[in-house]
Specification:
Layout (H helix, E strand, L loop, with lengths): L10 E6 L2 H5 L2 E3 L12 E5 L5 E8 L5 E5 L1 H7 L7 E6 L5 E11 L2 E6 L1
Parallel strand pairs: 3-7
Antiparallel strand pairs: 1-6, 2-5, 3-4, 4-5, 6-7, 7-8
GO molecular function: DNA binding
Protein name: TF-B3 domain-containing protein
Keywords: DNA-binding, Nucleus, Transcription, Transcription regulation
């Protein structure tokens, strides 16, 4: 999604990345929406057409995290600690989109599809 495009309607969650998120797995915030049930697969296609498969893994205590292709994705996109990330469901099956927030000026953030 570039400048001037519509906001996604099915935002799963937004979060600032931690060291664990960048190096091991992405911890899913409590209250995230539109995620697959159980240890469901989330298919993410980046803006270059490369497809990644994340697994929304359930952990002890009902906490969830993204695993499988998450680390290769984070490395390929050179994600860093403190980056703002938004994941949303496309509204079609298990297709998802990942965006990074870019601070423009003041409180304004542009969301760019990775």
């Amino acid at each position: 999604m570039g400048f001037g495009e519509m906001e996604p309607q099915f935002v799963c969650f937004t979060k600032r990345l931690s060291r664990t998120d960048v190096r091991r797995n992405l911890e899913i915030p409590n209250g995230a929406l539109f995620l697959p049930a159980g240890n469901g697969v989330m298919r993410v296609r980046d803006r270059h057409g490369v497809t990644y498969q994340f697994v929304a893994s359930e952990r002890i205590g009902r906490r969830r995290s993204l695993t499988q292709d998450w680390i290769p994705f984070a490395a390929a996109k050179t994600l860093e600690v403190d980056a703002m990330l938004r994941i949303y469901w496309s509204g079609d099956g298990n297709e998802y989109v990942v965006q990074e927030g870019v601070q423009l000026f003041g409180p304004h953030i542009a969301w760019l599809t990775l």
